[in-house]
Amino acid sequence: MEQLPELITERLVLRGFQLSDAPVVQALAGAYEVAHTTLNIPHPYPEIGAEEWISTHAGGMERGTSFSFAVVRREDDAVMGAIGLHIETRHNKAETGYWLGVPYWGQGYATEALRRIIAWGFEERGLNRIYAGYFVRNPASRRVQEKSGMQFEGIRRGDLLKDGMYEDHGMCAITRQDYVSLQK
Asked: Which residue of 25, 51, 123, 150 has the lowest C-beta tally within 10 Å?
């Protein structure tokens, strides 16, 4: 079975989740502000939701379609959130998704993690395109994507249903060609 690598940045380590991370994930993902800005995190967060979520990671990795990393601060090994790639092998592309706990917002950690995942996707996974969505009411997520080299592609109005409300869904993406150009 393929092992999830550790991806290192200046301030972060992106690594596979361990069951021992579940209490921190539970606390961080359980914050209303985190759930409110992500599609697939419910609020209130289920009591054993973190353990169940972490236990799903091995299957996606075995299939080569889903890679979920803990975003960990190097200086103190604090688990701050998650980032991943969900690969569509037929089209050689992947969707990335990420979230950070509220105490870690606004410090550049999400951008740093996203830049590293993008590099891994192109350099190690051989992808041609990486894309991400965000709720239009969360412009900070769009800024993270654009600072990571992604380009705004448009808005799908009323595209997603979150907590009984239809949400406008913005999209950004980067292609292999864009990535190579940025590295020059």
From this structure: 123
Who's near 113: CB < 8 A, 6+ residues apart? 9, 12, 14, 69, 71, 81, 83, 98
pLDDT class of 171 with cuts at 50, 70, 90: very high
Preceding omega of 44 cis (within 30 degrees of 0): yes
- Spatial separation of the C-alpha atoms in residues 135 and 154, rounded to whole Å: 12
What digits encode the pLDDT tens for the residues 115-145?
999 999 999 999 999 999 999 999 999 999 9
Q: Which letter, b or e, does each residue of 59-96 get, where b requires 16 or more Cβ atoms within 10 Å of its Cβ?
A: ebbeeeebbbbbbbeeeeeebbbbbbbebeeeeebbbb
d(CA 150, CA 130): 8
Amino acid residing at 71: V
64 Cβ partners below 8 Å, 6+ apart? 2, 87, 89
Structural domains of the chain ordered from first start: 7-132 (3.40.630.30)
Q: Helices (DSSP H) in the chain: which residue ranges?
A: 22-29, 32-36, 49-55, 57-63, 109-123, 139-147, 176-183
Say how far apart CA 67 and CA 100 lie, in whole Å. 17
